[in-house]
Amino acid sequence: MSTIEFSQEGRVATLTLNRPEFGNAFATESYGEIRDYMEKLGADPGVGAIVITGKGRFFSAGGDIQWFKQKIEEGTYIQKENVLHAGEMSRAIRKCPKPVIAMVNGSAAGAGFSCALACDFRVVTPSTKLVMAFINMGLCGDTGSILTLTKLIGVDKAERMMMTGEPVKGEEAVRIGLATMLAEEDKLAEVTYAFANKLASKPTRVMGVQKRLLFKYFYQQLDGEFSQDEAEAMAGCSREYDFEEAVNAFIEKRKPVYNQR
C-alpha cells in the first residue's frame, strides 16, 4: 500500500503524506514514491503545479523512529545507501520542471522539513513549526537539508536551526525567508491552492527552464560530492552513542542524556 495519496484538480496535483498514525513519518518507501511522482508529474502536460502536504494534524514528523530502533537492534544502523536513497527525493523535487509547493500543516521536522525545504515554495500558518530536528536524534542531517536550508536563510540562521533543533514558527519563518507565504489558520488550503492555480496558469515550460538553471547554478551539489559526504556523515553518526540514546529516550518518553565529550 502506498504511503503517498495522489489527487488532482484541474492542473494542480496534490501528494499527501499518508501515515497520520505515525505523524506522517517517512517509511523507507516514501522517498522513492515521491521521487517517482516528481518524475511522472514533471512529464505530464496536464499538470501545471504540484502541492505536497500531510494528512491529519502534521506535515511530517520526519524519519521513522521504529525503523531507527530496528537498525540499532540489528547492529546495521543507517547505511550510506539508505541516505543516498532518501536524498533522491530532494533532488527529484528540485529537478522537477513544475513548481512544487509545500502546504505545511502542523509541524515539519527532520526529513519532513527537508522535503519542504526542497520545494520551490512553502505556505505556512502562525502555528506551523519548522524543525531541523536531526540534532535531537544525534544525527547531522540528510535529504540535502544542510545545503537547501543554508541556500534559503544563510549560514548563521541555518546553523542556529541545525545546532539547537529549536522550531521556527510560521510568522518568523516568513520573516527570515524560510517560508514563502503566511495563511490564517483556517485558510491554509485556500491560500495554497490559489497560489498553485496562479502558477499553473503561467507558461509551465518556461518555469521548467528556470528551475533547470536554478538547479545547475545553485543546487548542483545535490548531484555530486555533497550527497556522498552527507551519506557518509549520517552513516557515521548513526553508529555513535548519541543516536542510540536519542532513539531509546524517544521511545521511553524521557529526556536523552547525550555524550558530552
Overall description:
This protein has 261 residues and is of the alpha/beta class. It has one domain: Alpha-Beta Complex (2-enoyl-CoA Hydratase, Chain A, domain 1). It contains 10 helices and 9 strands. The protein has a 6-stranded mixed beta sheet with strand order 1-2-3-4-6-9, sandwiched between helices. Helix 2 packs across helix 10. The longest helix has 20 residues. The radius of gyration is 18 Å and the shape is globular.
State the major sheet. Answer: 6 strands, mixed
Average pLDDT figure:
96
CATH superfamily descriptor = 2-enoyl-CoA Hydratase, Chain A, domain 1
**Physical arrangement of strands within the biggest beta sheet:** 1-2-3-4-6-9
Gyration radius (Cα, Å) is 18 Å
CATH class: Alpha Beta
Regarding quaternary structure, how should these chains be classified? single chain
Give me the secondary-structure category. Answer: alpha/beta
Observed structural traits:
single chain; 261 residues; alpha/beta; 2-enoyl-CoA Hydratase, Chain A, domain 1; six-stranded mixed β-sheet; three-stranded mixed β-sheet; 10 helices; 9 strands
Task: Give a brief rundown of this model.
The chain has ten helices and nine strands.
Task: Itemize the secondary structure elements and their pairings.
Elements: E1 4-9, E2 12-17, H1 28-42, E3 49-54, H2 65-74, H3 80-95, E4 100-103, E5 107-109, H4 111-118, E6 121-124, E7 129-131, H5 145-164, E8 168-169, H6 170-175, E9 181-182, H7 188-200, H8 204-219, H9 225-237, H10 241-252
Parallel strand pairs: 2-3, 3-4, 4-6, 5-7, 6-9
Antiparallel strand pairs: 1-2, 7-8
